[in-house]
């Protein structure tokens, strides 16, 4: 027998983290963006509405979780995922083998919440959220949402086999140019999240100065990442790299590794070293390290920036599912 509850107290959401983490570890469709180390700091930082997270239990075991909140607008209330905007993938969590039953209970509980639209964006292929149905819900609108370019990788020779020859030549030239400038070193930095993030903020800001200033120009976004990064690092999910030329740190790479997939999330570099392409050097290093760790795919995440396709990435599309009620039930 499954039972459900709606969690509207932030303290209760945080208290759920140990059970949540265990469910996330078992869920077949989970990504780093569904783990409590990511979503609890997101809610703590932004809290843009009324918390309405749905938890599904089987006895004392948490077997389903839909982290949701209500956003109230003049046109009605929207039921939205916790983590929206900064999370490249969103989904619900379901325990393996009972996904359909859990999804049905989530839908049933969601219908008891007063909303006019229930929106699930950024659902990856195979997402548990795509299976949500209920007799009282119409089929809902399902459309392509965002492109996430992904590079297939395998084995220690991933760069030589998977990355186009033109990009490999550019990478060799970048290494040579950097070596002419000074002594080049690439350092793993996840053991010291604060120092790494200080460098990332500096370099990301320098990279985007005058061009929109970048995501970390928002103080709330910076605060969120400062909270989330140490928690993610403690679980072994982050991959943080810095590249230095002599004593100058000139590039930073912030990514994740989960199961057989690596994710390139954020980066930055010193424009004074643009000719040495520190960003490209770090991505090449991250791809090689991801393959060495057993990743099969290197995900450049949301956005169709030209440089991603230069590495040989191919679009994989997320979906957006929307249910609408003319009168909230």
Provide structural commentary.
The chain is of the alpha+beta class and 329 residues long. The chain folds into 2 domains: 150 residues, Aminopeptidase (3-Layer(aba) Sandwich), CATH 3.40.630; 142 residues, Gcn5-related N-acetyltransferase (GNAT) (Aminopeptidase). It is built from 10 helices and 15 strands. The strands form 2 sheets. It has an 11-stranded mixed beta sheet with strand order 2-5-6-8-15-9-14-13-12-11-10, sandwiched between helices. A hairpin with a 2-residue loop joins β5 and β6. The radius of gyration is 21 Å and the shape is elongated. The mean pLDDT is 94.
Number of domains: 2
How far apart are the termini?
A: 25 Å
- What CATH architecture of the largest domain do you see? 3-Layer(aba) Sandwich
Secondary-structure element sequence? EHHHEEEEEEHEEHHEHHEEEHEHE
Helix coverage percent: 25-40%
Produce a short descriptive summary.
With 329 residues, the chain is an alpha+beta fold.
Considering the chains and any ligands shown, give keywords for the structure.
329 residues, alpha+beta, Aminopeptidase, 2 domains, eleven-stranded mixed sheet, four-stranded antiparallel sheet, 10 helices, 15 strands, 30% strand, elongated, Glycosyl transferase, Acyl_CoA_acyltransferase, BioF2-like_GNAT_dom
Strand and helix map with partners:
Blueprint (H helix, E strand, L loop, with lengths): L2 E5 L2 H6 L1 H10 L9 H10 L4 E2 L1 E6 L2 E6 L1 E6 L2 E6 L11 E2 L4 H13 L5 E7 L17 E12 L5 H5 L2 H17 L2 E5 L4 H16 L10 H16 L3 E8 L2 E11 L2 E9 L8 H15 L4 E3 L6 H5 L3 E11 L5
């Amino acid at each position: 027998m499954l039972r459900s509850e709606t969690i509207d107290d932030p303290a209760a959401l945080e208290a759920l983290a140990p059970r949540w983490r265990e469910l996330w570890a078992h869920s077949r469709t989970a990504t780093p963006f569904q783990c409590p180390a990511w979503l609890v700091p997101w809610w703590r930082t932004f809290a843009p509405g009324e918390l309405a997270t749905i938890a599904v239990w089987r006895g004392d075991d948490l077997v389903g979780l839909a982290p949701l909140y209500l956003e109230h607008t003049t046109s009605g209330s929207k039921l939205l995922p916790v983590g929206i905007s900064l999370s490249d993938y969103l989904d619900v969590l379901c325990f393996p083998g009972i996904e359909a039953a859990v999804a049905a209970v989530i839908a049933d509980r969601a219908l008891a919440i007063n909303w006019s639209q229930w929106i699930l964006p950024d659902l990856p292929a195979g997402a548990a959220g795509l299976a949500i149905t209920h007799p009282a819900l119409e089929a809902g609108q399902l459309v392509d949402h965002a492109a996430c370019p992904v590079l297939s990788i395998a084995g220690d020779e991933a760069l030589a086999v998977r990355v186009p020859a033109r990009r490999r030549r550019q990478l060799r030239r970048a290494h040579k140019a950097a070596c002419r400038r000074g002594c080049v070193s690439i350092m793993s930095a996840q053991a010291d999240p604060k120092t790494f993030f200080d460098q990332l903020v500096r370099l990301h800001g320098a990279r985007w100065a005058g061009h929109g200033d970048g995501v970390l120009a928002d103080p709330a976004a910076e605060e969120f990442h400062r909270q989330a990064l140490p928690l993610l690092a403690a679980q072994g999910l982050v991959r943080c790299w810095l590249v230095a030329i002599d004593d100058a740190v000139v590039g930073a790479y912030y990514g994740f590794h989960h199961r057989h997939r690596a994710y390139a999330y954020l980066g930055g570099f010193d424009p004074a070293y643009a000719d040495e392409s520190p960003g490209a050097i770090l991505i090449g290093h991250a791809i090689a390290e991801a393959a060495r760790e057993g990743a099969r795919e290197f995900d450049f995440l949301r956005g169709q920036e030209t440089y991603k396709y230069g590495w040989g990435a191919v679009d994989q599309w997320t979906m957006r599912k929307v249910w609408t009620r003319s009168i909230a039930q």
